[in-house]
Amino acid sequence: MSKRVRTLSTCALAMLLAGCASSQTTVSPLATAQETAPAAALQSPPNLSSQAAPTAAPIKAGASAPGITRYTSDSGQLIPSILAYAHEVAQTRNIPQQRVIAILEQARHNATVVRLMTPSGTRIRRSWITYRNRFVEPIRIKKGLAFWQEHQSTLDKAFQTYGVPPSIVTAIIGVETIYGQYMGNFRVLDALATLGFSNPDTKRPERSQLFRDQLADLMLLDHQNKLDALHVEGSFAGAMGLPQFMPGSLLRYAVDGNGDGKIDLINNVDDAIMSVASFLSLHGWIGGLPVFAPVNLPAQPAALVKGGLDPSLTWETLVKQGARVKGTASTQQWQRHGLGVIDLLDEPRKLEEYRTGTPNFFAITHYNRSYFYATSVADLASALASQMGYGGPN
Fold first, then answer.
1. Rounded distance, CA 284 to CA 310, Å?
2. Angle, CA of 300, 302 and 303, to the nearest 5°
3. Residue 315 and residue 297: Cα distance in Å, rounded?
4. Model confidence, pTM
5. What is the pLDDT of residue 50?
6. Beta bridge mates, 324
7. 269 and 153 in contact (C-beta within 8 Å)?
8. What's the burial of 172, exposed, middle or buried (CB within 10 Å: 0-12/13-18/19+)?
9. Is the distance from CB of 70 to CB of 105 less than 8 angstroms?
10. pLDDT at 224
11. Which one, of 305, 307, 344, 343, lies nearest residue 321 by Cα?
12. Residue pair 42/35 in contact by the 8 Å Cβ criterion
């Protein structure tokens, strides 16, 4: 379960590139949703939002220049821009300055990270069918069933605590790392420093800013003795462990799943399971709702697609546009919450599919901004739940 290899982590490749479970949202290279503000406030279970640490202000010092391949001078001292970054991190994150400097002096530029994160320059045509087939497939289903059976007590505990079904948590870990099989063996310090100070995407400066902030979070975690910044490994974008949490998400959303007083997302499955459920709960998951509402949409649903990471429609609005509940069901809980129509396009095949997402669908998009990603998680969860004898992800 702890095997680490160099892998094109689904989540890491989808970074904004900020990792899967990230306090920053993500963009998929195959399918993106239009950007909006963060998700609606948590509604169920109550009072959990206080468990998340506040997001720190961005680090203003430091800059990214693709030509930089060394972060220290010949004498071993940090170059001026990174030294200024170190001073601000120490001051704003309350970390001893010498520790920050000592960590950054050990950071190394990683050419492989640059190669993997360099924009291709060509538009990739969206293919929902191809994307889905990568994740809703026999290996992940087989391993997912074994994972669920082996860790059912913890998955049930996560369900009772956060309202997130076992199938959803299992599916996310399966999509991210095939249950720990591919967690990455890049030193996270090097990956984040490379993307923070030598980011190859010069047209999106907010990406390098994001990685510099994540690097500051990594050093804060080190200062708090929650990990060793000099040795922890992860994806080429800095995501860690079974659920591929970025440092900021580990800092703010991860929880101690087995009560041993520490959080270890790489080796401790209980911590990983509970942390995934915690993340979703703190990003708007509502217990008891399906991921997709059972809705028959009107004949031309494209106009109803608003994009974003939040449900922006009401059931009443959809009804006025011709939507109807499938079957003869009476009023249901999901009709009282925001909804969003999503598009799943397959450009090579000239196909399109539309679904109606509930707040739970949009909670998953905060793990990864791609509608393809969130739908694949839901579909894998449904496949797992069906084989476990349940009717669906809830």
1. 9
2. 95
3. 11
4. 0.87
5. 39
6. 296
7. no
8. buried
9. no
10. 96
11. 305
12. no
Each residue's pLDDT tens digit, 256-285? 999 999 999 999 999 999 999 999 999 999
CA distances from 314 to 101, 338, 357, 375 (A): 51, 5, 11, 20
For the domain 55-119+185-245, what is the CATH code? Answer: 1.10.8.350
Q: What is the CB neighbour count within 10 angstroms for residue 71?
A: 22
Q: At what angle do helices 166-177 and 269-282 cross, to 10 degrees?
A: 110
- Catalytic residue of the set 176, 206, 316, 347: 176
Q: Which ranges of 138-286 does DSSP label H, i.e. alpha helix?
A: 138-150, 152-162, 166-177, 188-197, 205-223, 247-253, 269-282
- What is the distance between the alpha carbons of residues 49 and 295, in angstroms, rounded to a whole number? 31
pLDDT of residue 15: 38
Identify the pLDDT of residue 51: 56
Q: Identity (one letter) of the amino acid at 92?
A: T
Burial (Cβ within 10 Å: 0-12, 13-18, ≥19) of residue 225: exposed
Catalytic, 176? Answer yes
DSSP helix/strand/coil, 296: strand
Q: What is the pLDDT of residue 55?
A: 77
318 DSSP β-pair partners: none
Tokens 């509940």 correspond to 325
Predicted confidence at residue 56, as pLDDT, reads 80
What are residue 324's phi and psi, to 5 degrees?
-140, 150
Q: What is the per-residue pLDDT for 278?
A: 98
- Given a cut of 70, the residues of the chain with pLDDT beneath it are 1-53, 329-330, 391-394
Q: Residue 119, preceding bond cis, omega within 30 degrees? A: no
Q: Please report how many Cα atoms fall inside a 13 Å half-sphere around the Cα of residue 244, on the Cβ side.
A: 37
Of 371, 9, 363, 54, give the one whose Cα is nearest residue 177.
Answer: 9
Query: Which phi and psi (to 5°) does residue 346 adopt?
Result: -125, 90
Selection from 135, 133, 170 nearest residue 155 by Cα: 170
| Residue 105 Cα distances to 78, 82, 387, angstroms | 6, 10, 51
- Within the chain, all domains assigned CATH 1.10.8.350 are found at 55-119+185-245
Task: For residue 117, give both structure tokens.
Answer: 């994160």
Asked whether the CA dihedral 235, 128, 344, 121 is positive or negative, the reply is positive
Structure token pair of residue 256: 């101690």
Residue bearing tokens 């999106």? 204
Buried b or exposed e, range 270-298, using 16+ CB within 10 angstroms: bbbbbbbbbbbbbbbbbbebbbbbebebe
Task: Sort 329 into a burial class: Cβ within 10 Å, 0-12 / 13-18 / 19+.
Answer: exposed
Q: Given this model, what pLDDT does residue 329 score?
A: 65
